Predict the structure.
Amino acid sequence: MIRQLRGEDGRSDAARSARTDALRPRTEDATTVARSVCPYCAVGCGQLVYVQDGRVTQIEGDPDSPISRGRLCPKGAASKQLVTHPGRRTEVLHRRPYGTTWERLDLDTAMEMIADRVVRTRRETWEQTHEGRVVRRTLGIASLGGATLDDEENYLMKKLYTALGAIQVENQARV
Amino acid sequence: MAECHPVGFQWVVEAKERGARVFHVDPRFTRTSALADRHLPIRAGSDIVLLGALINHVLTNGLEFREYVLAYTNAATIVSEDFRDTEDLDGLFSGWDPETATYDPRSWAYESTGEQPPAERAEGGPLHAEAAGAHAYGAGGPAAHPNPRTDPTLTHPRCVYQILKRHFARYTPELVERLCGIPRDGFAELAEAVTANSGRERTTAWVYSVGWTQHTVGAQYIRSASILQLLLGNMGRPGGGILALRGHASIQGSTDIPTLFNILPGYLDMPHAERHEGLDQYLELEGGATGFWGNRRSYLVSLLKAWWGDAATEANDFCFGHLPRLTGDHGHYTTVMGQIDGTVKGYFVIGENPAVGSSGGRAQRLGLANLDWLVVRDLTLVETATFWLDGPELETGELRTEEIGTEVFFLPAASHVEKEGTFTNTQRLLQWREKALDPPGDCRSELWFYHRLGKLVRQRMTDDEIDRPVRELTWDYPEHGPHREPSAEAVLREINGVGPDGRALSSSTQLRPDGSTACGCWIYCGVYADEVNQAARRRPGREQSPVAPEWGWAWPANRRILYNRASADPEGRPWSERKAYVWWDAERGEWTGHDVPDCELRKPPDHVPPEGARAEAALAGTDPFIMQSDGKGWLYVPAGLADGPLPAHYEPHESPVTNPLYAQQANPARRTYHRPESPYNAPGGRFPYVLTTYRLTEHHTAGAMSRPLAYLAELQPELFCEVSPQLAGHLGLTNGDWATIVTSRAVVEARVLVTGRMRPLRVEGRVVHQVGLPYHWGWGGDGLVTGDVANDLLPLVLDPNVYIQEGKAMTCDVRPGRRPRGRAALDLLEMYRHG
Amino acid sequence: MAERMGFFTDTSVCIGCKACEVACKEWNQLPDDGFVFEATSYDNTGMLGASTWRHVAFIEQARPAPDGDDGVERWLMSSDVCKHCTHAACLDVCPTGALFRTEFDTVVVQSDICNGCGYCVPACPFGVIDRREEDGRAWKCTMCYDRQRGGLEPACAKACPTDSIQFGPLDELRSRAEERVARLRADGREEARLYGESPSDGVGGAGAFFLLLDEPEVYGLPPDPVVTTRDLPALWRWAGAAAVSAAGAVALAFLGPRGWGGSRGRGRWGGSRGLPGSHGVLGSRGGGGR
């Protein structure tokens, strides 16, 4: 029935369900709130990451940030989906040479295998001199990094690669 | 800016509300244009004409900020008699060597004062250029004579000011109309606004992104803006500057602490086999002895101490020999060629997706298919990880899965909320992120991965001499948490550096050349001052001044505007009350203001450096550009650029327009790859349209962080091309239907978006159509939406200074309908290449 | 009752980024709308609906020129949302009490009460409220009722990079909007006008109102919306029929043109084409009560 015809205006408390009465922002139930930074462009908008029971329940702008004042663009606003979407991969995969499918691999095993290959390739392609000059390097190992890596991560990468003599270390910053 | 940096754009909107005028120069009418006071549509690749005409407008009408220009730039400096301009040599500067296709920059130098010129001035040519030597000067500039001959009247025919005047004389509003397609009234409005809003009371800012850098003259685009801004007195002042809006959360950080082939942390050059024998020779060739770069021994030795600790001693050159040597270009595209040629065996791809995101995708994928092993780390299975299973070359029959020998490891990565660390944003601000939770499953941070890999590799090292740099590497970081994550704070503290007492340093001025200090990146020294993570500071913006110095930490020294000494006049007084920023407080005998002054705090404005002084001591109290050996802003670049001391207009490598200015059609020093994997469009009618690529607000780069997200994928679900109603009519393209875009590299299909936001331009008396293509799609990548790879269309041709590809201006053809499949696609390409 | 809260959407500073659409979906955990390229400027979500509670319209306006060069002169963008009407027909026709007026004077559907009758759908003079195919229930913007109860502003307003979407006490927003229009007009932008702010309009004033730079139809907004239940008592007496039929009759009376982007079974307002004289409401999903 149409309530207006019954003389009701929809504002009566009787119209409210118990669920409605209990509504609160879910961020109030967060166990922790981490102060973070948006991972997309380089503006560096502040983000607040709400976590409850080991799950991210909300990511929104940090109003304290003098850069962003709590605001986010569509990508920044989709950050919760970025970290929680069902398509995100959480398992190591391996494709053998000439293989036609992925296979699961244990993380520790994968790390050992990668370390083996780094050491082997480095030895096999080591270049002590180049046209009579000492170069102490390998051109057999290269790296391309994205620009969403942390400063600390870039630092360890450059440090390790340089010690290994790998010089073809590149980044989104150029391409 | 509204498109790609929407939250940053709030400040433009706010400035506009307060009276700022906003011009948007772009081939397309974008969301930025929608809010600008005026949109100036420009032909992609013609910006030096526009900027050159603005420079000419300033010089011809005497509109420069003369006091600023005289005191703070090299306008008065006399240049060598040997210098010849492009105006004299029809598009070439003096020093061109057609054999090596490089410049010898010696003739560009300042006029000799009879003293021995700094060593670097004699350097140049192929060796220097090949190793991106010019790029190494990004922060510092090479040596120039600290006290060259000058003419303060600016009338000497060989002073920089007069050279500029002659060089840009032909860059007129008429030329802008002819080449850029910008009508004269539009140019006049821009020129009037820019000059009226510069000077003591006002400043003008220029903002750019890869629309300026991804050209074969990209570095010279920025140089053009630098010249204009220096002439107008807009550098080092609030509301001024040239702002590079960078596109990734820490792309600035990955340049400062580079994962780049040619530099070490803090913009120190990687050593070169031919140029640098030992530490002393390296330091001698690295630049001048004056300005803050004069301290580079302290910077480098401290870095070597951070990396090799006790093993680095004075006796062994602080392990300088542990550094591998360059012999030329080892950049991304050359690396890809190395993969195709089989010299590169193993490849790490970390949060990157070159199979979709890099130019000339086919070459990228052919390279991947020829590796021994490949490690891909990302949040999703990006196309770079799956090229062997579903790449476009399988469809065309060029590759077969069972014939690809590449072993592939895919390791899932931790997201930004699952690790702690700093991003350095576009304004050099380091902001620490707290970790919200541990990563799921096998997901790990890059910090974990490289720390663990380093440990495993070190376990495999032998007594062999070649293993010494790895054995001796300092690699002990405290671990914590269930995954034994290395402490990012410990790494940041190492980057910051420690003094002889083992305590965190607070400033790069504390670094010593004797090995008593260790510092992983000298420009970041101070981020851990007082043993406090300064990047984690979060004093709310509303409780601070607009400069907000207590939010995060900006390099260097928490300065928010670089070269801000220039915000005061030579006597140290603000140019105006409105534009006061830092100034000399005579009573206290020091510089003060709203920001950390970018000069020595107690050096008075009238300070004259003693003869023979070194490093910062050689700078006068009036010198604001403290990283330069002469402390001046360079209108003219006597050394350090691979393609000339001044910007000149060259057409893009692929262009439908003949350069009317010079016989030299394109940048003579541009880097090309003449091999089958890198074809170029022939000039002429086969590729009649200008193609430009770009991003959309709703997506991120190659799509790995947006296409798998339903909320973003639904906003822009398909690759589309933007064409004008006129071009659509001409080609029979229907809105919403399909079009095929062709270059000699690839055929790509896209939905058609017919829009008046794309405007045909009248260039050199005829109509030039531009086609716009966002590049976020790929065939997989766990995307909810997929599409052809726009970057496959791009040519492998690079700026000679920084090796950035020309992704913003090339030629193409467009055909109605979907693209052919399989072999037929190759046949169509063949027809375009040779038919 | 607390102060009446509302939205003021100032389209003169909208950059069409769609942060509002995404922030709304993230907070309210809404399903996506499918992945269909609509070839209508940069709009691929079409219109407000059960799963899109903020929607950004894009209107490209050409500049007629003598040489036939009719490049775009203006690209209008506007984030639409439920108007939270003073006289809310959706609420009036809801037979279950699922729709109610909150203490903030906003209109909210209680999903645990809604039985999916759909009366509200044709009743809305703006074509906002919509039923979700999967569960049949009606959904629309709640002005983030849960957030408001915790003292937080709605997700869309918080995210909006340029403050095009402002949230606050309605009276305050109205005076701020008046000032803004005056300022724009003083700057020569005579076309600036408010939409939905007047208590004397057909819905008694909207809780979510707009500053527009052109006629409402241009943005796909009805130029003169009227609460569809205004004449219901008369209709009731005249028809002497069941209320269900009456609601259906209202829907038919306001039946407007179908949109051009109906790939998701939804029509839309006329957008840039304009709808002179029409008060279109969709008929396709109206009146199917049970």
In short: Confidence is low (pLDDT under 50) at residues 234-290 of chain C. Helices of chain C lie at 19-28, 89-93, 120-123, 145-149, 155-159, 170-186, 232-239, 243-253. Chain C touches chain B through 36 residues (CB under 8 Å). The longest strand of chain C covers residues 72-81.
